[in-house]
Design brief:
single chain; about 80 residues; alpha+beta; Pemi-like Protein 1, Chain: D; 2 helices
């Protein structure tokens, strides 16, 4: 397939035919990863696990020995009930 880089506002973009996106298992609105290898632009669909974030990846960033503690938020400022 041959296409052209086009100007859209202050950005540039490419348009992909629906059939091409279906072949790549990408839908409108899906997140994709874009990278450059040499002079090639690689566009890959992101693998999602039940949503935007992977819980295992997030938990792995918690420092070892981290202890949960209660935080005092101060006295109510409005009609909050504590």
């Amino acid at each position: 397939m041959v296409t052209k880089v086009q100007k859209w506002g202050n950005s540039q973009g490419l348009r992909f035919p629906k059939a091409l996106l279906e072949d790549a298992h990408v839908k409108v609105g899906d997140a994709v990863h874009v990278s450059v290898q040499g002079q090639k632009i690689i566009i890959e669909p992101l693998k999602k696990i039940r949503g935007k974030y992977d819980l295992r990846a997030l938990v792995s960033k918690v420092p070892k020995g981290y202890q949960v503690e209660e935080v005092a938020w101060g006295t109510p400022l409005g009609k909050e009930e504590w």
